[in-house]
Amino acid sequence: MNIILLVMGIYYLITALWPLISIKTFELVTGPKVDKWLVYTVSCLLIAPSFLYIYTGLNEELISPLIIFLAFTNGILLILIDVIFVLKKVIWKTYLVDAILQIILLTFLAFSDSVTS
After folding, report:
1. Nearest to residue 110, comparing CAs of 1, 2, 15?
2. Using CA atoms in the order 73, 78, 84, 87, what is the torsion angle rounded to 10 degrees?
3. What is the DSSP string of 62-86?
4. Are 82 and 95 in contact (CB under 8 A)?
5. Integer Cα distance of 85 and 95 in angstroms
6. What is the pLDDT of residue 16?
7. Per-residue pLDDT for 117 more than 90?
8. 13: buried, middle or exposed (CB in 10 Å: 19+, 13-18, 0-12)?
9. Fewest CB atoms less than 10 Å from the CB: which of 1, 7, 40, 67?
10. Sign of CA pseudo-dihedral 87, 24, 101, 80
11. Longest C-alpha distance within the chain, in Å?
12. Each residue's pLDDT tens digit, 13-30
C-alpha cells in the first residue's frame, strides 16, 4: 500500500465532492464564485484522478511512472493556480492552505518508495 497516493486520492475526492454536495459551505470557506459551473467542472475533473490515486494507493503493484507523473502534474498545476490567483486577488487566501497541503503531499510522494525505487 502506498499511503501517500491513498491520502492524496482521498483528499482530492473530498475537495472535489464538497462543492458538488454543498456549494454554499464551499463558498463560505473559499469565497463567492461568479461562475459556479466552472467550480462544478473542476470538481468533476478531479474525481477521476482521485479514484485512480485511491486505487493505486491500495494496490501498490499497479503504480507506474505514468501514475506518478499524473500525481505530480496535478499537484503542481493546482499549486500554481492557487498561488497565482491568490496573488492576483481573484481567489481568497484560504486557497493557500490547499497549496501547502499539495506541497506536503508531493514532498512525501517524492521520497516514497514508489518514486525512489
Report:
1. 2
2. -150
3. G--HHHHHHHHHHHHHHHHHHHHHH
4. yes
5. 9
6. 98
7. no
8. middle
9. 1
10. negative
11. 45
12. 999 999 999 999 999 999
